[in-house]
Design goal:
alpha/beta, TIM Barrel, seven-stranded parallel beta sheet, 8 helices, 7 strands, globular
Length: about 200
């Protein structure tokens, strides 16, 4: 995934020409501004926090909402998706590093929250996502990503998931470790766009 936060349309067009067809945006408002200029075939994920008053617009703009971190937010998405006559695809965001300043479900609450959210008829849970602490300690990052993979496997086994179930983790500075530990989707911004600048 190319993370296009704060990137211009001109920058994004270079990325599209290279064959990238999946982008992540952090804010609903920014996607709304860019939307008229984007290819129709582009897959668009919301990867930043979602306020309840922005859910309706997010459902119109994005194909996947990766940052669902509470039953209350899921319930709002479910209700508005029903109004729009669609099934919303979401990932559950895990606060794997237990950082107080970050959004996300705590690991010990995941199975219970999954049980509640998976029953909502207008929602499809298609994966897990995390934004771990920023660290230069590669061993620490490896441990965090291993914990996420364990959670991912536990959910698949507990709920007997047969279809593809994503594990969205890893960014420009740590994506290699994330891939080694089982990420199926990595979110790269700086690492992609700096390549076009050089």
């Amino acid at each position: 995934m190319a993370v296009t936060k704060k990137r211009s349309i001109a920058e994004m067009e270079l990325v599209f020409e290279s064959g990238i067809h999946l982008i992540g945006e952090n804010r609903v408002q920014e996607m709304e501004r860019k939307m008229p200029f984007l290819p129709k075939t582009l897959e668009k994920h919301l990867i930043g926090p979602l306020q309840k008053n922005k859910v309706h617009k997010a459902l119109e703009l994005f194909d996947v909402i990766e940052s669902v971190e509470s039953v209350q937010l899921a319930a709002k998405i479910n209700a508005l998706a029903q109004e729009l006559n669609k099934k919303a695809t979401i990932y559950l965001q895990i606060n794997i590093s237990r950082e107080t300043q970050k959004h996300g479900i705590l690991a010990e609450d995941l199975l219970n929250m999954y049980t509640l959210i998976v029953q909502m008829p207008n929602i499809k849970i298609a994966g897990l996502m995390c934004i771990p602490e920023f660290s230069e300690n590669l061993s620490r990052l490896k441990t965090i990503f291993q914990e996420m993979k364990i959670l991912h496997t536990k959910v698949i086994q507990e709920f007997k998931i047969q279809e593809r179930f994503e594990l969205s983790m890893g960014m420009s500075h740590d994506y290699k470790i994330a891939l080694e530990e089982g990420a199926t989707l990595i979110r790269i911004g700086q690492g992609i766009f700096e390549g076009f600048e050089n």
